[in-house]
Amino acid sequence: MMIEVKNIQKSYGDIHAVKGISFTIKAGECYGLLGPNGAGKSTTINMLSTLFPPDSGEILINGLDVKKSAEEVKKILGVVPQEIALYSNFTAWENMLFWGGLHDIKKNKLHKKAEELLRLVGLSDRKNEKVKGYSGGMKRRINLACALLHSPKILLLDEPTVGVDPQSRNMIFELIEQLNQEGMTVIYTTHYMEEAERLCTRIGIIDSGTIVAQGTLDELKQQSGIKDVIVMQCNQQPDESAIAAKLNLEVKVTDHTIYIQTQNSKKDLTRCVIGCSEAGYEIQHIDIQKANLENVFLKMTGKQLRD
What is the DSSP string of 200-268? Predict the structure, then answer.
């Protein structure tokens, strides 16, 4: 495993920020921590990045204990914190040279890498402008570029799209996807469902300092019991029990509308349509309500994500 987190806990006075969470991440995975503000996401990232040691438990990164080998761990980590870590009176270029210099990268190599990353984040033409004049999205993109200067094996991103314009957000997504496809291991924290669904191979749902569920989106659906729903409006009131028996699926009927719960709407749609037609019902409209992370989160935690 690239990352092993074993029952870590962290408190600040009477506040128990992280309450014994565990997870593993394979090399090349993109693992998402999904949860509301205050759930413990940033505290977890801070412990992984060696900024704060856990009160108890163990973190192994590439086989190294973060408590015992913090300096070695830092060499393979790229960290994009939630708060933008840039000097506002420096230009983008000066920021990159400063942060790259902390990793003892040789000057020629650093200049070449900085130019490459500036092109990747679409800011080559703005590199000599002071960061204080940048938009929020541009700052986020430079922040990400700075984290990649030493070619880390693992990238930790803590809410990297907060306050970002749509163009910058999409550019950040595309860069993360490219890095992950090239083999970089990524940990991504967010409170946006669509980000986790788009980017992450596996997702840990974190709430009040604990991970309440984790797995792929399909695995989370199974754990929560959430299913897709095929909705079919008919020309007459259908017989609920007869359709349920014919399809061997969970069926509800309300006001000429059939609601069919299924683990795989794509697989079951055709036979549901044929079955209802054979039963003598003329279908006037079909809709599919896909099970998604929002449904899963609500079922697992009893609350909306942005509560």
Answer: -SEEEEEETTEEEEEE-HHHHHHHHT--EEEEEEESS---HHHHHHHHTSEEEEETTEEEEEES-HHHH
Which tokens sit at 276? 């209802």
Retrieve residue 184's tokens. Answer: 């970089």
- Residue 151 CA to residue 145 CA, distance in Å, equals 10
pLDDT in tens, 222-256: 888 888 999 999 988 999 998 999 899 999 999 89
pLDDT tier for residue 306 given thresholds of 50, 70 and 90 = low
Section 20-31 average pLDDT: 96
Chain centroid to CA 281: how far?
Answer: 43
Residue 89 is which amino acid?
A: N
> What amino acid occupies position 300?
M
167/60: higher pLDDT: 60
Q: Report the pLDDT averaged over residues 154-167.
A: 92
Distance between CA atoms of 144 and 72, rounded to whole angstroms? 21
- In contact, 276 and 283? CB cutoff 8 Å: yes
Contact of 7 with 21, CB cutoff 8 Å:
yes
State the sign of the Cα–Cα–Cα–Cα dihedral 53, 81, 22, 155.
Answer: negative
Rounded mean pLDDT, 263-281: 90
Query: Cα dist. 143→79, 85, 127 in Å?
Result: 9, 7, 13
Does the domain formed by 3-222 have CATH 3.40.50.300?
yes
Pairwise CA distance, residues 285 & 17, whole Å: 48
Question: From start to end of the chain, where are the E strands?
Answer: 3-12, 15-25, 30-34, 56-61, 64-65, 77-80, 154-158, 185-190, 202-207, 210-215, 228-234, 250-254, 257-262, 283-289
Per the structure block, which two tokens stand in for 221?
């659906």
Please state which CATH number belongs to domain 228-290.
3.30.70.2470
Alpha carbons 55 and 44: distance in angstroms, whole number: 12
For the chain, the domains span: 3-222, 228-290
Under DSSP, the state recorded for 109 is H
